[in-house]
Amino acid sequence: MWFAIDFHSHVPVYVQIKDNIKKLIVSGKFKENDFLPSIRVLSKDIGVNVNTVARAYRELEAEGIIKPERGEGYIVVGVHSEKLKSEKLRELENMLHKCKDIGITRKEIIDILNTVYEVSMESKEGGEDGEVRK
Question: In this structure, what are the phi and psi dihedrals at residue 76, rounded to the nearest 5 degrees?
Fold first, then answer.
């Protein structure tokens, strides 16, 4: 399986697919000119409707991340990782403002941050020095 979809998430499935594909590209699992799995194969592998995967692919194409190759499928054009990081940091900052506005404490946020990074560090071999500590 390529990745898992959280069907209980408030994030639409097609957005989860887009985000996961971007993550696979940024991490180097898919490189420029690599073919993505076909829409039908990916939809079967992750257990979603073909139209949902097609929408994700269309949006990735509109963003310039993938492009169709006639009769072949979709290939990776690339992701501008600095632009993607910048977008995600802006999203995080906006979310942190919302959390602060409703009274979520710094400690609660740091606890979640530590949990997320501990889990992700444990899943990586060798880890990396990006862990946030209290």
Answer: -80, 130
- Enumerate the β-bridge partners of residue 66: 76
- What residue ranges define each of the domains in the chain, with the CATH number in brackets? 13-76 (1.10.10.10), 81-123 (no CATH)
SS3 per residue for the chain:
CCCCCCCCCCCCHHHHHHHHHHHHHHCCCCCCCCECCCHHHHHHHHCCCHHHHHHHHHHHHHCCCEEEECCCEEEECCCCHHHHHHHHHHHHHHHHHHHHHCCCCHHHHHHHHHHHHHHHHHHCCCCCCCCCCC
Global pTM?
Answer: 0.64
For each of the chain's 134 residues, which pLDDT tens digit applies?
578 899 999 999 999 999 999 989 888 899 989 999 999 999 999 999 999 999 999 999 998 899 999 888 999 987 776 777 788 889 999 999 999 999 999 999 999 999 988 876 665 544 444 444 33
